[in-house]
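Running this now, will post back.
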Amino acid sequence: MEFGAEFVRRYQKHPDAQCYAICPHDKAKTDKVGDLFKVGRRYTYYEDVFADRYADAIPIVTPIAATRL
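Update: finished.
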């Protein structure tokens, strides 16, 4: 499973949330995650998500960068 995809399931299971749309950074990942979790609204550019008047909250999920100590 791609990073971030596990959050879709969490939002779908939450009683007060709805996973309205997804926006992975490339089309193949968007379709893979969208098909897996049955999310119809899919974006590949974050600007399009921000322009969607029906999106109430937009969580931004990014991996923690690996660092050397």
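The helical segments are 5-13, 27-37, 46-51. More later if anyone needs it.
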